Amino acid sequence: MMFGFTVARASTYLLPSAGDNMVGAIQSVTARHEDTLSDIARQYDLGYDQITAANPRVDPWLPGEGTRIVLPTEYVLPDAPRQGIVINLAAMRLFYYPPAQAGQPSEVITYPIGVGREGWGTPLGKTRISVKIANPSWTPPESIRKEHAENGDPLPAVVPAGPDNPLGQFALRLALPGYLIHGTNKPWGVGMRVSHGCIRLYPEDIAALFAKVPAGTPVLIVNQPWLLGHDNGHDYLQIFSQTSEAPAAQTQEAFTAWLTQHLPPGKAIDSRIAQGWLKAANGIPEPL
């Protein structure tokens, strides 16, 4: 499949039937000589780390004409109530469950996100959208101003709305003090752990989400790197990279314990295969 670069469309899916929790399907495209994985990711509403993890042998900046690119566009929904906004930090994706409309099937809309980098982690837990702000200004906290000053890039006390504002054109303030879901003037950072704890979306995605969600919408932030999927009688395991810097042995021990607890009755998996999937953490659901 050949394509030119255009901005992404939101990934909207019908909610699966009771007992199932997977949406979407794995796809692939063929790169042109001028494409980068970052270009292709935005075209298909994927994050940077998401597409590079699914294509570990592909040069992200020079994939090469004719190279097959795997699009990891199949998702196990977070293990959480299907209401409001659910953010899975490990998957670096936001899932929005619009209110059901009479006579219409229920849907889920999912967007890639950028999250907090090491030392500036995005907090977990329940919150809500408290305020919606179009064309926001940004008042950087003193800690961020100090960091920028030390790096030779001083910030003003207030960054006005406009192309230099890192919040982009739209922001959804959370009831967690100091945290927002917002756009960005650096879309290459979507799908990476680069923020100071806020949730950033592609400009076109935050515009769409901003138009859909009212103030008061509940928000749940989880960190679920390991997800057990169910689809039409089949079971799958989806694994993402850890957001913490835990030692490998500690991660393996925790993963083994998680598998023991979550594998369906009668299911077994070779420990070597499971550890290989854990190491790869490519975000592609593997059949059990």
Automatic annotation (TrEMBL):
Domain LysM: 27-71
Keywords assigned: Cell shape, Cell wall biogenesis/degradation, Glycosyltransferase, Hydrolase, Peptidoglycan synthesis, Transferase
BP terms from Gene Ontology: cell wall organization; peptidoglycan-protein cross-linking; regulation of cell shape
Active site: 182 (proton donor/acceptor), 198 (nucleophile)
Organism: Acidithiobacillus marinus
Superkingdom: Bacteria
Family from the record: Belongs to the YkuD family.
GO cellular component, one term: extracellular region
UniProt-listed Pfam families: LysM (PF01476), YkuD (PF03734)
PROSITE patterns linked: LD_TPASE, LYSM
InterPro entries per the UniProt record, alphabetical: LD-transpeptidase, LD_TPept_cat_dom, LysM, LysM_dom_sf, Transpep_catalytic_dom
Entry's transmembrane regions: none
Annotated protein name in UniProt: L,D-transpeptidase
